[in-house]
Amino acid sequence: MACLNTYFLLGLFLIGGLVVGIFVLDSMANFTNSASDKASCDEEREAILQCQKGNKQAYGYLVKKYMKRAYFIALGFVGSHENALDLSQEAFVRAFRAIGRMDVNRKFFTWYYQILRNLCFNFLRDRARHARPFAEIGDMELRTIPDKTENAEEILERKEIQEAVWKALDELRPHEREIILLKDFQDLSYKEIAEVLNCPIGTVMSRLFNARKALKTKLKRYLA
Question: Is the pTM of this model over 0.85?
Answer without folding.
Answer: no
